[in-house]
Specification:
With 285 residues, this protein is an alpha/beta fold. The protein folds into 3 domains: 152 residues, Rossmann fold, CATH 3.40.50; 44 residues; 70 residues. It contains 13 helices and 6 strands. Strands 1-3-2-4-5-6 form a 6-stranded mixed sheet, sandwiched between helices. Helix 10 packs parallel to helix 12. The longest helix has 19 residues. It is elongated. The protein starts with a helix and ends with a helix. 28% of the residues are buried.
């Protein structure tokens, strides 16, 4: 195993030495949990996806090591039962790394996650010898089912946990609570927006963004309060570009998918809003 890993590490060193591109700095700490008998190692470029995978694995009883750095990942895979590779890594793509590992008699199950939804991805998968691949965006059910499947095929026992009904409801101190509290404090302060922003050590643009959120309709606020896991404050800089009908429509879709285990990230929200605005322009014409 050590010889295989050292060989793969050398590939990364060569890629970095031969590349004219600037090195990419990862400002994060690896996500680690030892709560579980079966450990999954994940190499994933995007921070939001790393956090989502950690949430899926922890909820379903798996231990994990999740990182975006290839060398850090290789140093941690010994003792893991499944490895999951992102196909968007800067140094070596997931399918390429799967191929390198599998041709070196690497016997752990390998799953590759890709957002390339075409025939080329399927051909890369077949050539890579990876055990299977998943198309992004990936729901919790798809992610865990895939891990369980490759473990079973490898003769290992998947984690079994008791399925308890998920309690949903408003959590204390959501961003909407903070926004409402800040708006009240501003109205009581008698200060101008720039003065209030300086005194509270926030940017004027953040303050204006919070005011836009506070001005949302009762229906949208109700969706946020009842489904806090589905929404992030940063979503609304983009969602507020929509008219009332579009805002309610997309927020309802966010909640519906969240109940099925798929949570939107900021990239998906931007894409959704742009698609809706483009459709509106076509209808107007």
């Amino acid at each position: 195993m050590h010889k295989i890993i050292d060989g793969i590490r050398n590939i990364f060193k060569k890629n970095k030495n031969n590349s004219d591109e600037e090195a990419i700095n990862f400002e994060y700490t690896p996500l680690i949990s030892d709560q579980g008998d079966v450990k999954v190692a994940v190499l994933e470029y995007y921070q939001q996806m790393r956090e989502l995978y950690a949430k899926y694995l922890l909820k379903n009883g798996y231990a994990y090591f999740i990182t975006g750095d290839e060398n850090e990942f290789l140093a941690a895979i010994e003792g893991c039962s499944v490895i999951i590779l992102d196909d968007h890594q800067p140094e070596i793509k997931g399918f390429q790394l799967a191929s390198k590992l599998k041709t070196e008699d690497f016997n752990l199950p390998v799953i590759v996650c890709t957002d390339n939804a075409n025939l080329e991805a399927y051909e890369e998968f077949k050539c890579s010898l990876a055990d299977t691949y998943l198309m992004k965006p990936i729901s919790e059910e798809e992610f865990i089912s895939c891990i369980n499947k490759v473990l079973t095929e490898a003769g290992q026992k998947p984690v079994e946990i008791e399925n308890k009904p998920v309690k949903r409801g408003r959590k204390p101190h959501t961003f909407l609570d903070i926004v409402e509290k800040r708006q009240k404090a501003f109205l009581e302060s008698g200060l101008s927006k720039p003065e209030f922003a300086r005194r509270n050590k926030i940017s004027i643009s953040s303050l204006k963004s919070e005011f836009r959120i506070n001005a949302l309709s009762f229906e949208v606020k109700k969706l946020i309060k009842e489904n806090p896991d589905c929404f992030k404050k940063s979503f609304f800089d983009h969602l507020c570009k929509l008219n009332e009908h579009g805002l309610i429509e997309i927020c309802s879709e966010i909640v519906e998918k969240g109940h099925k285990g798929f949570y939107f990230d900021l990239v998906a929200i931007k894409k959704k809003v742009n698609e809706y605005l483009l459709l509106e322009k076509k209808i107007e014409k």
